Amino acid sequence: MARTTTHDESPTSIPGATTTGLTAPGTRRSRIGPLVTLAMGAGLVAAVAFAATPVVPVEESALTGAVLCGFAVGWAALWMLSHRYTDRPQRWAAAPALYMGVAGLLLVAGGSPVREALTWVWPLTLLALVTWMWQRTRHAMPSRGGRIQLYLVFSVLAAAAVGGGYEAIGEATDHATMPSTGRLVDVDGHRLYLSCVGSGSPTVVLEPGAGGTSAQMGWIAPEVAGHTRVCVYDRAGRGWSQPADTAQDGAQIAADLHTLLHRAGEAGPYVLAGHSFGGLYVRIFAERYPDEVAGLVLLESTAAQGPATSAASSEGNARDAVSRFAAVAAVAGRIGVARLLAQTDWAELPSQSQTEIRTSNSQAGWFGSTVEEYLRAGPSAREAASFRDFGDKPLLVVTAGRHPQSWMAAQSRLLDLSTNSTQEIVGGAGHIDLLVTKRYAAETAAAIIAVVESGRDSRPQVTYE
After folding, report:
1. Dihedral angle at the C-alpha atoms of 279, 324, 239, 249, nearest 10 degrees?
2. Sheet containing 270-275: order of strands
């Protein structure tokens, strides 16, 4: 007589087994979706952990390599776990694991020279790899959920490959738009871009705000140059300047500017004009080198925050973490993100300045240095708080009129820094308008010239019209 059964005798069923997608070793299941999630998550965690490892240098290429090694762990995990826990092993996953692992180790060991050598190679090879993986997944991955997850990852990788090719072509043509004036000056291991025009004393030094470059002074610098010598420059990793190995907080920026001016032969006294974050940097400069500063112009300056601290008092671990994060963020520039963001409308500036801004802001270094600048805003503001007394030297606070009362009050408190201070409110102007809108930039230039004239004539008060 035939025997019938009412229970499942499948070899994949074991007493007490759960349905999480993983089973005991030696059994097989075809559900692989949760395993894909686990493997991709492991890769992401490994990438973060490797990038944070102290033995990996705080340098873009090395940190990029560390992140790639982390992602290689994720692909290797998919390959191994699918062999061990499923009846549909994903053998193809060994290819991206090998690709990213080898590339990562080369970048960690070889640094920038290896990255530059791979500039034209990796976008094409990655795109080819993604195309192959997409095809293999269609046949080898039984789980619809697993396929969807992998297709999302493949889409990100394909976008990175296309963006990387776009960036490589862009950087190859960027040199054609470099300004004809100015030069690169060595400042303790990296070179900073400096351009000085006009004649007379005191020399005006223009300091742009967060993420800003010398090109933003396209209206102001020529106007001031008609009355005295004026210098514009790009901070490290920004515009035409090279990145620096040192952490770029306000104290370091002020020290680099001082070294730059002296090595370029641009002697003081200086009238420093700082916009937004630049206002923090010129105050730190004035605190460190008071005998070389004849006057200050604070243009929509960011407020300093107490208690005052020095760069030396900042926690080393926190500074290292910021540097690591900023270096990893610069990778976004390598896949074209910065180049897309650089297409912001700068139509209020002269056409040459527009071109220079879009070109300089397209560089991978701009993205990373701007991220670092914002991350170090707190320490920079506390360092600037140490500057409390400018004596009777001329100080002009220029404030845009389109702000809430809290901002206006903070601007007015800046007048307490000097007994020879004046505030001018530019009605109708916004924060960036003082630099990029021609009619408001003309008022900014007039304010700077007023401080120059006050310093020359030893006037008891700044005269601004």
Report:
1. 20
2. 183-187, 190-197, 230-233, 203-207, 270-275, 293-299, 394-400, 420-426
Q: Helix, strand or coil for residue 257?
A: helix
Question: pLDDT tens for residues 54-72?
Answer: 888 878 888 899 999 999 9
pLDDT for the residue numbered 208: 95
Cα–Cα distance, 85 to 114 (Å, whole number)? 38
In the predicted structure, residue 458 carries a pLDDT above the cut 70? no
Phi, psi (deg, nearest 5) at residue 235: -70, 165
Report the C-alpha gap between 328 and 331 in whole angstroms: 5
Question: Which of 270 and 375 is assigned the larger pLDDT?
Answer: 270
Residue among 216, 207, 222 nearest 256 (CA): 207
Strand, helix or coil at 400?
strand
What does the pLDDT look like over 264-274, one tens digit per residue? 999 889 999 99
Ordered by start, the domain boundaries in the chain are 33-175, 183-457
Distance between CA atoms of residues 370 and 34, nearest Å: 38
Under 8 Å between Cβ of 387 and 427: no
**pLDDT number for residue 101:** 96
pLDDT-derived band at 318, boundaries 50, 70, 90: low
If you average pLDDT over residues 406-417, what whole number do you get?
A: 93
381 neighbors 302 (Cβ within 8 angstroms): yes
For residue 243, name the pLDDT band (cuts at 50, 70, 90): confident
Cis link prior to 269 (omega < 30° from 0)? yes
The correct answer on CATH 3.40.50.300 for the domain covering 183-457 is no
How many Å apart are CA 423 and CA 462, to the nearest integer? Answer: 10
pTM of the model: 0.76
Burial bucket for residue 154 (CB in 10 Å: 0-12, 13-18, 19+): middle
The reported pLDDT for the residue numbered 417 is 95
Q: β-strands 270-275, 203-207: how paired?
A: parallel
Quote the DSSP letter at residue 307. Answer: S
Residue tagged 């952490």 (tokens):
247
* Positive or negative: CA dihedral 377, 379, 380, 382: positive
Q: Count, in order, helices (H) and strands (E) of the chain.
A: 18, 8
